Amino acid sequence: MRVISGPRARLVVLLAGAALAMGGCTRLRGHQGYVLDPDLVNSVQAGVDNRNSVARVLGQPTFTSQFGQGEWYYVSRDTRYFAYNRPHPVGQTVLRIRFDDKGVVRGVERTGLEQVAKITPFRKTTPTLGRQRSFFKDLFGNIGAVGAPIGGGPQQGGGRNGP
């Protein structure tokens, strides 16, 4: 067996190290949520389908409307990112299916990435109105207040008519 030494060995080690380092720079893809099938989505028709038929065709929704059963939402999002970085959305589809009072489909709407709002927090704390308290005031502020009567002490006298 022949052993490589000298400048050739350095070149091999350097190339192997560069290949390993470049492996960490690979762009990764991610998918979250519902997997949309365009043919199945197009088969849902307003005025024809109801909640049961939509659940059989598309499955259970990602979430439903907060008030009542008027709307179902199917959410799908695709992201791209490099290793150890925050994922960035490159595609999103929200399928909204509206039902009437009888459970029949009223409408099917799709929205995309234009509905995503980018939020950049100012600091790590939420500003509040009122007094500023330190960590120690929060920690030790209730010492002596536990069990104390409300309103400044026990009531004197004998009720409504007084003494």
Question: In words, what does this structure look like?
Answer:
- It is a single chain.
- This protein is α+β, with helices and mostly antiparallel strands and 163 residues long.
- Helix content is 23%, strand content 25%.
- The protein has four helices and five strands, in the order H-E-H-H-E-E-E-E-H.
- The chain has helices at residues 7-23, 38-43, 51-58, 135-140, and strands spanning 27-33, 63-64, 71-82, 88-99, 105-111.
- Strands 1, 2, 3, 4 and 5 form a five-stranded antiparallel beta sheet that branches.
- The radius of gyration is 31 Å and the shape is flat.
- The N and C termini lie far apart (112 Å).
- The model has no long low-confidence stretch (mean pLDDT 80).
What is the structure about, briefly put?
The chain is of the alpha+beta class.
Write the layout of secondary structure elements.
Elements: H1 7-23, E1 27-33, H2 38-43, H3 51-58, E2 63-64, E3 71-82, E4 88-99, E5 105-111, H4 135-140
Antiparallel strand pairs: 1-3, 2-3, 3-4, 4-5
* Portion in strands: 15-25%
The 3D shape can be described as: flat
Structural class: alpha+beta
**Gyration radius, rounded:** 31 Å
Report the biggest beta sheet as strand number plus sense, adding barrel if it closes.
5 strands, antiparallel
Residue-averaged pLDDT: 80
**How many DSSP E strands?**
5
Give me the strand/helix succession.
Answer: HEHHEEEEH
Number of helices: 4
**In terms of per-residue confidence, which ranges show pLDDT below 50 for 5 or more consecutive residues?**
none
Oligomer: single chain
